[in-house]
Amino acid sequence: STKETFLTMRLTGTKYACGRGGCGACTVMVSKRDPTSQEIRHFSVTTCLVPICSLYGAAVTTVEGVGSMKTRLHPVQERIAKSHGTQCGFCTPGMVMSMYTLLRNHPQPSEEQLLEALGGNLCRCTGYRPILASGKTFCLVSRGLRGHPQSKNDGDRRSSLGTQESQLFVKEEFQPLDPTQELIFPPELLRMTENPEKRTLTFHGERVTWISPGTFKDLLELKAKHPEAPLILGNTSLGPAMRSKGCLHPILLSPARISELNVVSKTNDGLTIGAGCSLAQVKDILAERVSELPEEKTQTYRALLKHLKSLASQQIRNMASLGGHIISRHSYSDLNPILAVGNATLNLTSEGTRRIPLSEHFLAGLASADLKPEEILESVYIPHSQKLALTFRQAQCQQNALPDVNAGMRVLFKEGTDIIEDLSITYGGVGAATVSAHKSCQQLLGRQWDELMLDEACRRLLDEVSLPGWAPGGRVEFKRTLVVSFFFKFYLQVLQELKKLIKPFPVPVSALAFMGSWHVDSHQPLQDPVGRPVMHLSGLKHATGEAEFCDDIPMVDKELCMALVTSTRAYAKIISIDLSEALEIPGVVDVITAKDIPGTNGTEDDKLLAVDEVLCVGQIIFAVVAETDVQAKRAIEKIKITYEELEPIIFTIKDAIKHNSFLCPEKKLEQGNIEEAFEKVDQIVEGEVHVGGQEHFYMETQRVLVIPKTEDKELDIYVSTQDPAHVQKTVSSTLNIPINRITCHVKRVGGGFGGKIGRPAVFGAIAAVGALKTGHPIRLVLDREDDMLITGGRHPLFGKYKVGFMNNGRIKALDIECFINGGCTLDDSELVTEFLILKLENAYKIRNLRFRGRACLTNLPSNTAFRGFGFPQGTLVTESCITAVAAKCGLPPEKVREKNMYRTVDKTIYKQAFNPESLIRCWNECLDASSFHNRRKQVEEFNKKNYWKKRGIAVIPMKFSVGFAATSYHQAAALVHIYTDGSVLVTHGGNELGQGIHTKMLQVASRELKIPMSHLHICETSTAMVPNTIATAASVGADINGKAVQNACQILLKRLEPIIKKNPEGTWEEWVTAFEQRISLSATGYFRGYKAFMDWEKGEGDPFPYYVYGAACSEVEIDCLTGAHKKIRTDIVMDACCSLNPAIDIGQIEGAFIQGMGLYTTEELKYSPEGVLYSRGPDEYKIPTISDVPEEFNVSLLPSSQTPLTIYSSKGLGESGMFLGSSVFFAITDAVAAARKERDIAEDFTVKSPATPEWVRMACADRFTEMVYICPLPLEPPSHPTPWAIFK
C-alpha cells in the first residue's frame, strides 16, 4: 500500500491505525489534473487502501510536505496546535491533511464543509471540539461552530463562575492563510497529462500483477483475456476484503487512465455518469444538476445526494467509484436502493454494447440480469424523476457508519388524486443483497394513500421482506421494525407533500457553539506559566508529523518482525501444532514458543504463551519471526493447530453466575440496618441494569521494539506503555536476567486509557524472548484487528438493585449487587470490583446501604484497566436507581437527586470524611449555567407537540475519588539537571499519553526555578533515568510527579541560594556558574505519596487522597421511529480547584466526556456464539465521530476552591469526565420515558447501555414494533441453532 511505501521513505507523519480506511490517521492529499476541465483536483485519501500502482501521474502530499518545524509551519498546523487540538497527537497529521485538502479546494470553507471534511477522521483524546475550533478560524462565516470560547455576557447564561475569563487561544495571533504560497502541481506531471501515456503499464508484484491499460480498447481486450480479474479504482471494497478475508486476485485491472469511464452527459430526460467517477464527483455532478432543473424532476437526484452526505467518509467518497459501488452489490449499499427505485440503467461494453436495468434481479446477482465475465460497466443512466422519491437510513451513528437498514421509496399518483399509480420500494441491510418489495408494491396499486393502505402495506412488507433470527448482522427485530418505520415516515412525508404542508427534505447543518471559563489569579506574575492555557509541548510536532512514536523509530540493523499466533477456540486442549509449512515460507526465521522462555512464563493462571490449553479466542500461543511483517503473517496462515474442545464454555455474566464461575471472593460494604429500613419505607423498587464493555481504541495500537545489545545481555526496549517499570520487570523475570540490564524508553504514547498498563509487558516480554533467541532486534506492531481481539477492555457489568424510599423521594435503603465480566484471567478484575464498590454511592447520602460485587470468570480475553476503573459502569446502576425512584414518586429525577445528595461534612460508606461543599456548588452552578429549569419546561412543551420525536434532558452530579487505594502507588520521583549554559533537563516517572503531563511538569519547574519554559526540556521517560516508577494512571500522574519535580527544583534552588544572595541582580545563566564552585546542579526529587489504605475486613479506610466533583446537563432529541438521537446541548461544571493548565484540563474533561458518551450510546462489542469478537475495527465498532459532539458544548472550571494536599491546589481530571457522558444516556432515557408515557406503556424499563438506536427504537414501543412481534420470524434451520451474536 501507499502507507507502507511512505514508511520505507521515512515519511512517518502518516500514521497507521486501522488498515481499513476507517479512522483517517493515514490521510494524505492526492492531486491530479482533470483531463476534461484541465483543472487540478485535490482530494484526501486514506493511504492504507491506496495501492502505490494506482498513483501513476498523481502528486501526493503528506503532512511533511505541508510544513515543518525546520522550515515553516502552515497555518493549518499552527492553528490546530495553538487551539489545543492535539493531545496524544497520533491522529493529528490525518486531521491536518483533511483540513489542508479542504482549504486547497475552498480557502474559505463553510462550517458544513468543515464537518464533512473531518467526518472520516477519528480522535479518541480531544473530544473534537478544539479541532473544530481551529478549523472554524478559516471559515468564511462563523456562527459559533463548536470550538470558540465565548464570554458569558447574556443574562440567560450569567452565573457566578469565576472573576476573570480568558480565551483558550487568541485568533488574532495566527498567521494568515495565503493560497498563493501553496505547493504547485509538479510541472513534470503537467507535461505527462498533456501527452498522456497510451501504452499499457504493468507492475509485477510477488503474488499480484497490476495492469493499467491506456485506452478503452486495451481495457476491453484485457478483460476478455482475464475475465476473472476484478477492475479496481478506489480499492475501498476489494482492499479491506483482501486484508481481512485473505482474498487474493493474481491479476488486477486498473481503468484509472480510461477517460471514457469518466464521461458525464446530460439529456432532456436524464443524466449519464461514467462508472469511473468517484462518489465525491457524483455528489458534485448531482448537486449541479439539482440546481439547474425544476424540483419535480430531481427527486431521485436529491435522494442520492442525501445519502452521499452520510455514506462513508470524505476520504472514501474521494476514492470509491460509482461503478465499483454498484458492482460490489453490498447488502448495505446506500445508493443501490435509490438507483433501483429510480429506474437507473447500466451501460455495459464488451465487443458490443448493451443496457440492463439496475433491478432486483441484477442486485441479487442472477445470471440472466448480470454482467458477463468479459463485460465492463461503462456508465450509469439515471432518469429524471416524475415521482416523489425519498430515502431513509439508520446506522449506529450519524456519520461514517454502515447502515443497519436503508431504503429507497418512490410513488406516483394518478393525476389530481391520491390513488397510487406506481410504487417502488427497496431495502438494504435486510438480506444478502438489496431487496425489492415488488409483490407488496403491486398489490397496493390503485389503493388510496390513507391509513387503511398504510396498515396493509406494513403487513405485506413484513411478510415479503423477511429476516431469520440467525441472520448475519443480528438485530433482527430492530431491522424488521425499521422496514415498517421507514415506510411510515415515507407515508407521512408523502401525505404532507400531497397536502403541500412542508417540503420533505433535510435542513442544513446547524451552527454550534462552545464556551469555556476558568479563573486566573490577577496577582500572578505574567512570566509564571502555572494556571495558564499553555500549548501542549509537542503540539506543533504533532501537527507537522515530526513527533516520533514507537513505530516511527527507523529500522535498525538486522531487525526482524514478529506476528502473533492466537487461539481460534474459546476453551480447548491443544492436541498438536504443525509448523512445517510456515517455516518453509521465504523470510521466516523462527517460531517462538513457551519452551523458548528461559525464565517464567507469566503466572500460573495467566501465561504469556499458552501451554497445553487455551482459555479464550485470542489467547497468544506463539509468535512467528520473519524478515518482514508480510512474511510473518503469511506464515501464520500456514500453521495448523488441532484442538479438543473442553467444557463448560462460559461467555456471559449470566452463564458465569449459573456455573458459579468467579475470579475472586465477593467484595462487600454495608452500613446501617438495611433489612429494618426496607420494612419502614413507603415503596420498594427492584430493577436490573446492563452495561456493555468498551474497547480502548487508542489510536496507536500496541507496539514494541526490542534491541539486544552485544554485551552483558543488555536490552533497550522502546514501547508504547503507561508503565515502563512493569514492562522492565516482566521482561526481567521472563528472560531470567537482572532488571538493571533492561532499559525501557517511552517518548510518547498514542493514547492509553488504561489499556497500556498491563498488556505492553506481555508483548514486550514475548518480543524480548524473540530477540534473545534470534540475536536480532524485534519489532512487534499489532494490527487493529489483533489488538482488539487480544487485549480486552472495560468490564461489562450486570447490576441488580433494590431501593426503599418514601413518597417524597427520600431514599432510606439501597441494596446493589454487581457482577462484572472479568474474562479468562484475573488481571485487574479484583481491583476493579473493589473500586466499583467503593464508588457506588456517588454523590448520595443514604443511611442504609449494602453494596456487593463479584468478578466473573469467563472464556473471553481478560478485561483490564480502563479510564474510570469501574466507576462509569457501577455508578450508572446508582443513577438508574434514582431515575426509577423519581418515576415511582412522580417527581423529576433532579429533585430526587437533590433530596438525597450529601449536604454537609460527612463520611462515606467506607468511613472516609469529606466536605461536599464543592459538589453542591458544581450542582447549583450547572443548573444555573444550563438554564435547566426553563429548558425542562421547554422540553415538556416540545414533547406535547410532537408524537414521533421526543426530547429529554438530564442533569447528573458526580463525586469521583482520585488515586490508587494504596500509599505505595502514590510515590513519584524526578531527576532535574541544570547545565552550565542555563538550560535544564527534567525527567520524571510519568508517561506522556496525550494528557499533557510533560507540559505541566515544565510549568511546575518554570514556576519553581523562576525561569521561562523555553529554558526547560523533557526528553523521554526512561527506567534508566528514574527507576521503580508507578503506572501513569488513576488521574494522579501530574499530581505526584509534579510534587517530585517541585522537590527536585527546590533542592537545586536551595543549593543556589548562596550564589543568588551574592548576586541578587544577576541572571540565571550567571547563577548556574555555581558548578565552578563545586555545587551540584543535578537533583533527585521524591514524593512519598498520599496516604491511602482500605481495610476490607472492617469495611473502612481512607482509600483516596481526594475527590473531584462535577455536574453535567445534557439535552437530546430522539426519533421514535428509528431510534436515532441528536445531542442539542451539554453543560459541564467541574471542580478543578486551581488548574495547572486550563486548556489541557478542559481538553481532558471534553475528551473523557465524549469517550463516556461513546460508552453509553454507540460503542457495542459483539461476539459470535463461539466467542470470536466480531467488532474488530472502526467499521464495526463505533467510537464517537466529529458529528457526535453536542451542538452547544459549555465547560466551566469551578474557581475559588482549594485543596492544600496537591501541587498548587490542582486536581487530576483525567478520568472523572468519563461518567458525565451518562448525562446524555439519561437524557435519552428521559425522552424514551416521555414516549412510553404518551403511549400508555410502563415508564420503568430495563436499563441497557449503550443506548443504541436499536435499544431506543424498541423501547419506544408502538404499533410498528407490535407488528414485528406479532408477525412470526422465519423458522431457523437446524444448521443455525444459535443467534448471530452474543453480548457480554
Automatic annotation (TrEMBL):
Residues at which [2Fe-2S] cluster 2 binds: 88, 91, 123, 125
- All residue ranges annotated as the 2Fe-2S ferredoxin-type domain in the record: 1-66
Which cofactor does this sequence's record say it needs? Answer: FAD; Mo-molybdopterin; [2Fe-2S] cluster
Which reactions does this protein catalyse?
A: an aldehyde + O2 + H2O = a carboxylate + H2O2 + H(+)
Q: What is its EC number?
A: 1.2.3.1
The Gene Ontology terms for molecular function here are: 2 iron, 2 sulfur cluster binding; aldehyde oxidase activity; FAD binding; iron ion binding; NAD binding
Q: Which cell locations does it reside in?
A: Cytoplasm
InterPro entries documented for this protein: 2Fe-2S-bd (IPR002888), 2Fe-2S-bd_dom_sf (IPR036884), 2Fe-2S_ferredoxin-like_sf (IPR036010), 2Fe-2S_ferredoxin-type (IPR001041), 2Fe2S_fd_BS (IPR006058), Ald_Oxase/Xan_DH_a/b (IPR000674), Ald_Oxase/Xan_DH_a/b_sf (IPR036856), Ald_Oxase/xanthine_DH-like (IPR016208)
Annotated binding of substrate, by residue: 869
CDD domains associated with the record? fer2
| List of residues binding Mo-molybdopterin | 722, 753, 867, 1034
Listed Pfam families: Ald_Xan_dh_C, CO_deh_flav_C, FAD_binding_5, Fer2, Fer2_2, MoCoBD_1, MoCoBD_2
Q: Which GO terms describe its cellular component?
A: cytoplasm
Q: Which residues bind [2Fe-2S] cluster 1?
A: 18, 23, 26, 48
Q: Keyword Metal-binding, does the record have it?
A: yes
Query: Entry cofactor note text?
Result: Binds 1 Mo-molybdopterin (Mo-MPT) cofactor per subunit.
| UniProt domain FAD-binding PCMH-type: residue ranges | 203-387
Tell whether Lyase is among the UniProt keywords: no
Keywords from the UniProt entry: 2Fe-2S, Cytoplasm, FAD, Flavoprotein, Iron, Iron-sulfur, Metal-binding, Molybdenum, Oxidoreductase
Indicate the residues that form the catalytic site: 1215 (proton acceptor)
UniProt-annotated binding residues for FAD: 231-238, 334, 377, 393
User: What NCBIfam families does this protein's entry cite?
Assistant: mam_aldehyde_ox
Extract the PANTHER family matched here.
XANTHINE DEHYDROGENASE
Question: Subunit structure, per the record?
Answer: Homodimer.
- What family is reported? Belongs to the xanthine dehydrogenase family.
Name used for this protein in its record: aldehyde oxidase
Q: Per the UniProt entry, what species is this protein from, by scientific name?
A: Bos indicus x Bos taurus (Hybrid cattle)
